[in-house]
Design a protein that fits this description.
The complex is a heterodimer of chains A (436) and B (577).
Chain A: H1 2-7, E1 11-20, E2 28-38, E3 43-47, H2 54-61, E4 69-74, E5 77-78, E6 86-89, H3 101-111, H4 116-129, H5 145-157, E7 163-167, H6 175-190, E8 198-203, H7 206-212, E9 215-220, E10 225-231, H8 243-257, H9 284-295, E11 302-304, H10 305-312, H11 316-328, E12 332-335, E13 338-341, H12 343-350, H13 353-367, H14 369-380, E14 385-387, H15 388-396, H16 401-417, E15 422-424, E16 429-431
Parallel strand pairs in A: 3-8, 3-9, 6-7, 7-8
Antiparallel strand pairs in A: 1-2, 1-4, 4-5, 9-10, 11-13, 12-13, 14-16, 15-16
Chain B: H1 19-42, H2 61-92, H3 94-107, H4 116-126, H5 131-159, H6 163-171, H7 176-209, E1 212-215, E2 218-221, H8 225-234, H9 238-267, H10 284-291, H11 293-310, H12 327-359, H13 362-398, H14 401-416, H15 423-433, H16 437-440, H17 442-447, H18 450-462, H19 466-474, H20 479-513, E3 515-518, E4 521-524, H21 528-537, H22 541-573
Antiparallel strand pairs in B: 1-2, 3-4
Helix pairs in contact in B: 1-3, 1-4, 1-12, 1-22, 2-3, 2-5, 2-7, 2-9, 3-5, 4-5, 5-7, 7-9, 8-9, 9-10, 10-11, 13-18, 13-20, 13-22, 14-18, 18-20, 20-21, 20-22, 21-22
Classes of the chains: A alpha/beta (436), B mainly alpha (577).
């Protein structure tokens, strides 16, 4: 057993894939052919956009969901349910609101059947380590977000796991709190005071990954695959302003924006096909705001995405989606970590409201196949109405129900802004009649 | 008391009655028939019972009140146990869920009072010649009035346990037993406690109604406030009725202060919210317990016991390896399961038809449905009248926070008060002035349940956002426009919740309200309630089953086709915040 622990890799994934069933029978591929080996003594980051399957991968390792194909092993044994010696920190903290801090921390030990005295002393030690002294009898709702996540850490560490899994542990916190927690954690790690051997963390924050990890796996989306593996050899504590740090961040940005395969074949395809394009619900205000910003000084139509993310206080992930939506509508182009405003985008920034709507409507009909389809159906039918279910069914042939919902919501919101059609939420009916 | 708005359990699922509802209905009626015929065949002479006498001496009332309360507490304990088991099985097993949830849906529409006779006969046949049988029948009647909504609430909570907590408990290796006590039960607690409270309130009505039961020629009386009132009605003793009302008043105040307020205040920690809200329920009894060292010491062993019970390690020695069971096997089991249920239902339905068609003709069914429509009209008219009266008053009170704080507990108290204790007072009036019972007995149906409308409307108006009120007044919205555009949409979801509860309660009350007596004077209104009550007294079992079935179907349809769409509309369009 001890032998096993020493020699076998902590985690070993081979050709892991994961499918989710979809409406039309063909499955949605969330993860495809992922290989990953995790050894003792390293912090590994899974970096990717939302929907790249990185959280799914973490849950496969945590034994919470089963892979659809390939093998997932922990210390040489197939993962079949949560493995021993692996504990998890959640994005939403996942604290039990009816238990005090101390009781929350003791919970994992109770499940292991550890006796009361030892439970108490280990829990207090973990609370002490993570800086929660004095909060033992507080309930989670009395604590701030940062303190709650500290409880999450203490609860995960108290069972002395070999591997600590972290699912976007800082993304629900404000910027300053997240930074404090990150540096505290890294300090404990570097000093060897954490009772763990390895850490695997999921994040969509590029700087966070570079700040904390020894190794970063960059995921591509749809389906999720490991697109690149990057070693970070900067010594701790790392300085965000250090040129080599910046350079690494920039290169990862470039890698994440240069995507060989678009989400669905239709992005570059002919208009009129590709109804199955997933649309992200980006408000027209946000698009207009970004186009105006890009058109003005100091950008003059071109901006570096990391810089833009910083100035606009947007997460890289949000900015990616926004930039790509503009690209989809041909208002801008994204490449190598830069966003460049296209000619229609420049024009849009200068027009008044009505003219903007007109331009937006033209682009929607030309470049978003499903919107063109809806408009055609409405024009052709004598009643000029069509139930949403008709289009939802069509969407669900290509994507999961959640994506179909999101896409439909986006269609309604864009269509309303462009005054292309009206939508009645109660009867779920598209129509050409706008109240005048 | 916090203003909860809980989705009434009768609204949980789809609009259209489906095949599963029919299956559930047939199975339930089948069980009723089984109980009826089983009881009939054993046929215990009821006179063999050492029937304890009830006397009208008011000094007996404390003892009677205690016995009534004990029956109530026994029933609530049974309901809790039933809830924990039934809801968990329904939530954890997909195949069990297919049957259990439609059953629950139909069960909560069954008018319990109509069925009292059979349960008495049935339980007495289990314990011949002993009071225990009658006591159990009474407890069972209360249980059937309490359990369903509690179970529904628990089931819905378990189904909606937050995913991250579920993952956390799996990832920390909690056993199924530990998970149940550490996650499922605490998460379900607020809804369960609120529903238990509502059940308890509703339960007083049934405990009072089921303490004095007439079966054929003999009457079984169990010492309690209900049988005391029954005797007072027989002997035309208005003063005794007054004493009984006063006793009940004190009992309900005591139960509220000593039992429920402490529990609600204690359970506040289970509310699933990440920030603490300002208005926390308080209870002087709980404070006393928490502050007094001696009293707190009492709770220590109790705490330790519950803690160690929840930590029992029931690990399965062997677990079905994940993904081993092939898909076709699961499909096959599904098909067999559904076929089995279908065959069972068909058999029960066939036997039922055979039994009932011996004595009943199609004309009887038409007659029962006709009477049902009359009762339906009564319910609709009464709910409309009660709404016309209580909505404006409720809004007026609710918009005045100071007043609402004082009136709200009174309204909730009135909802808990067993209105059937007050029936004689109205009956005396009707007899005195020779009024038409078809009209004047009707208000009794809603006497106890109208308060649900009032306190829900008060809760809705109290929760109405201040900025919307300010906006309305700054735009000079007044008069009917203010009612139609501002306030009524704002309180709509709350009102619907209250009206549904009131309407359900009224159906049930019709069985005791459409027939009333004062001494030898009998009053009877035309309706399904009177039909069931009449058939019960004359021991005409097939007609009782027919009456109950018709009422059950009508209540279910009325809920599905009328209340559910309204409720869904309110939740989708008019829910503030």
């Amino acid at each position: 057993m001890v032998e096993d622990r020493m020699t076998a890799d902590l985690i070993e994934l081979r050709n892991v894939s994961r499918l989710f069933p979809k409406g039309s029978g063909e499955d949605l591929v969330v993860l495809e052919d992922v290989d990953l080996t995790l050894r003792a003594g390293e912090i590994v980051g899974l970096l990717g956009r939302s929907g790249s399957g990185k959280s799914t991968l973490l849950r496969i390792i945590a034994g919470l969901i089963a892979p659809s194909g390939g093998s997932a092993r922990c210390r040489g044994r197939d993962i079949n349910g949560p493995p021993d010696g692996v504990s998890m920190v959640f994005q939403s903290f996942a604290l039990f609101p009816w238990l005090t801090v101390l009781q929350n921390v003791e919970l994992g030990l109770e499940a292991l059947g550890i006796d009361r005295a030892e439970r108490r002393s280990r829990a207090l030690a973990a609370i002490d380590l993570i800086g929660l002294d004095g909060y033992e009898s507080a309930y989670p709702k009395e604590l701030s977000g940062g303190m709650r996540q500290r409880v999450g850490f203490a609860r995960a560490l108290v069972v002395h796991p070999d591997l600590l899994l972290m699912d976007e542990p800082f993304s629900a916190l404000d910027v300053l709190t997240a930074e404090t927690l990150r540096t505290d954690l890294i300090e404990l790690w570097v000093e060897g005071r954490l009772p763990i051997k390895s850490v695997l963390m999921v994040t969509h924050n590029i700087e966070e990954a570079v700040l904390m990890c020894d190794r970063i796996l960059v995921f591509s989306s749809n389906p999720g695959r490991v697109a690149a593996e990057i070693k970070v050899e900067l010594p701790h504590p790392r300085n965000r302003l250090d040129p080599s740090f910046r350079q690494l961040v920039d290169s990862i940005y470039a890698r994440m924006t240069q995507r060989p395969e678009p989400r669905a074949a239709a992005i570059e395809g002919l208009p009129g096909t590709g109804v199955g394009l997933v649309l992200n619900h980006i408000s027209s205000n946000l698009m207009a705001g970004l186009m105006e910003t890009l058109a003005r000084e100091p950008y003059n139509g071109r901006a570096d995405l990391p810089v833009l993310a910083e100035t606009l206080q947007l997460e890289a992930d949000e900015l990616f989606v926004l930039a790509e939506t503009l690209q989809l509508l041909r208002f801008a182009q994204v490449s190598e970590g830069d966003i460049v405003l296209a000619e229609p985008g420049r024009r849009f920034a200068e027009l008044d409201t009505d003219a903007r709507k007109k331009l937006f409507a033209d682009h929607l009909i030309t470049y978003v196949p499903v919107i063109g389809l809806i408009r055609r159906v409405l024009d052709e039918r004598p009643s000029h109405t069509a139930p949403a279910a008709r289009f939802r069914n069509e969407l669900e042939d290509y994507m999961s129900e959640d994506y179909a919902d999101e896409t439909l919501k986006t269609i309604v919101s864009w269509g309303r802004y462009a005054e292309l059609f009206a939508y009645d939420e109660q009867s779920e009916l598209f129509s050409l009649e706008n109240p005048h | 008391m916090p203003a909860h708005v809980v989705t009434p359990p009768s609204l949980g699922r789809t609009y259209v009655p489906n095949l599963w509802d029919v299956v559930a209905l047939i199975l339930i009626v089948g069980v009723m028939m089984l109980v009826v015929y089983g009881g009939e065949q054993i046929n215990v002479p009821l006179s063999a019972l050492d029937n304890p006498a009830v006397s009208l001496d008011p000094w007996n009332l404390p003892e009677y009140a205690l016995r009534t309360t004990l029956r109530m507490l026994t029933a609530i304990a049974c309901s809790l146990l039933f809830t924990l088991v039934y809801a968990t099985v329904a939530a954890k097993s997909r195949r069990a869920e297919m049957v259990l949830i439609p059953l629950l849906d139909i069960l909560q529409s069954v008018p319990i009072l109509g069925f009292l006779t059979f349960t008495v006969v049935f339980f007495m046949s289990l314990f011949p010649g002993r009071v225990l049988g009658a006591e159990l029948a009474c407890v069972f009647a209360i249980f059937t009035s309490q359990a369903w909504n509690m179970t529904f609430s628990m089931y819905q909570s378990i189904r909606n346990v937050p995913k991250d907590l579920e993952e956390a408990s799996r990832s920390f290796h909690l056993s199924a037993w530990q998970r149940f006590w550490r996650l499922d039960v605490p998460f379900a607690m607020p809804g369960l406690i609120w529903n238990t409270m509502m059940s308890m309130s509703g339960g007083w009505f049934f405990v009072v109604a089921s303490e004095a039961i007439t079966v054929g020629n003999s009457t079984v009386t169990l010492p309690g406030v209900g049988s005391y009132v029954a005797l007072a009605i027989q002997q035309r003793d208005l003063a005794a009725i007054g004493y009984a009302l006063l006793t009940m008043l004190l009992v309900i105040i005591a139960y509220d202060q000593l039992l429920f307020r402490p529990i609600v205040a204690w359970a506040n920690k289970f509310r699933f919210e990440q920030t603490s809200s300002g208005n926390e329920p308080t209870s002087w009894v709980l404070d006393l317990f928490r502050r007094t060292r001696a009293l707190r010491a009492l709770s220590v062993p109790f705490d330790a016991a519950t803690h160690s019970i929840s930590n029992w390690q029931f690990r399965m020695p062997w677990r079905w390896p994940r993904g081993v069971a092939p898909k076709w096997l699961s499909r096959l089991l599904d098909v067999l399961w559904v076929l089995g249920i279908g065959a069972g239902t068909f058999y029960v339905g066939w036997r039922l038809y055979g039994q009932l068609s011996e004595t009943l003709a199609f004309a009887d069914v038409l007659n029962a449905v006709g009477l049902g429509l009359i009762t339906l009209t009564r319910v609709v008219v009464l709910i409309a009248l009660a709404s016309l009266i209580w909505v404006p008053i409720g809004v007026w009170i609710g918009l005045r926070p100071k007043l609402a704080e004082r009136v709200q507990p009174i309204a909730q108290f009135l909802a808990a008060f067993p209105a059937n204790l007050a029936f004689p007072i109205f009956v005396v009036g009707i007899v005195q002035y020779g009024l038409n019972p078809d009209i004047w007995l009707s208000p009794l149906m809603i006497l106890g349940t109208q308060w649900y409308i009032l306190f829900n409307v008060i809760a809705g108006a109290s929760a109405f956002p201040n900025d919307l009120r300010e906006a309305a007044s700054s735009f000079h919205l007044r008069g009917w426009r203010w009612w139609v555009k501002v306030v009524l949409p704002g309180i709509f979801p709350y009102y619907i919740t209250g009206a549904i509860t009131a309407s359900g309660g009224s159906w049930n009350a019709s069985i005791v309200a459409e027939v009333a007596s004062w001494g030898q004077t009998q009053l009877q209104a035309t309706g399904l309630g009177a039909y069931i009550a009449g058939a019960t007294v004359s021991g005409d079992f097939p007609r009782v089953v027919l009456g109950i079935t018709v009422m059950c179907v009508m209540v279910t349809l009325f809920n599905r086709l009328f209340w559910r769409p309204l409720h869904a509309f309110g939740e989708r369009r008019l829910r503030l915040g």
